[in-house]
Amino acid sequence: MQALLEQVLAVAKEADNVIMDVYGRAFDVTVKIDNSPLTEADKAAHHVILQGLQALSLAYPILSEEDVAGFTGVGQGGRYWLVDPLDGTKEFIKRNGEFTVNIALIENGTPILGVVTAPALGTAYVAAEGVGAFKVEEDGRRHAIQVAGKPSEGATWRVVGSRSHPSPDLAAWLDKLGEHEMLSMGSSLKLCLIAEGKADVYPRLGPTCLWDTGAAHAVIRYAGGRVDTLEGEPLSYANPAEKLNPYFVVWGSQHAQM
Questions:
Q1: 15 and 86 housed in the same domain
Q2: Over 21-66, what HEC string results?
Q3: Which of 74, 112, 138, 240 could hold 122 in an S-S bridge, CB 3.0 to 4.6 Å?
Q4: Structural element, H or E, at residue 93
Q5: Residue 258 placed within a domain
Q6: Alpha-carbon gap, residue 209 to 101, rounded angstroms
Q7: Model pTM?
Q8: H/E element holding 1?
């Protein structure tokens, strides 16, 4: 799995390059049917990732946000690639650097490999079954990461939230949580903050799609955390025909929190 992880990281880095080429100049923004923005960077990154994954010796079906219709269904062994070529397009348009490339390998509904790169920040988060979870610095150095664990009794929870998608249901949920401070972040970097122990919990009480979470979910898993639905069940990717995730909470611990 280590070799495959490195190959996928290389593919994501190629996508980083084409994204940053667009980021450094003027670009047009169009609007998709669901009213989400789309740039040429999204499309260019999709094509690079598609070609890169198809060139691997392991030929699994690919579900990409930018070509949902091209997905042929879950492959052998319950596996498929789950891709968001540019997560955080709104952050990309704002040029605040908080956008990512997300590539996950799903097996029987569970992410078993994930690569999240942050092109403008020069960093990446990688994880795989039997390998662990790591942060890759801009100079290539990498170090193992792990969640912080449940805050001690009476401690202030570090809650990470979205810059672009505030939720009206969030206030009531936070009241139940107790003393907390909010950290704002865009894209799948929110989950990665928890994976490296810099935040404790991320309640997402708003719409997301499978490709928004798959890669970072793998990073969370192998860093010792979890992603649960509001019913306490692990967030599943077993039915890719259902593109929307249910509401979920990312916990920096394996133990029940509320």
A1: yes
A2: HHHCCCCCEEECCCCCEEEHHHHHHHHHHHHHHHCCCCCCCEEEHH
A3: 138
A4: helix 89-94
A5: no
A6: 14
A7: 0.95
A8: none
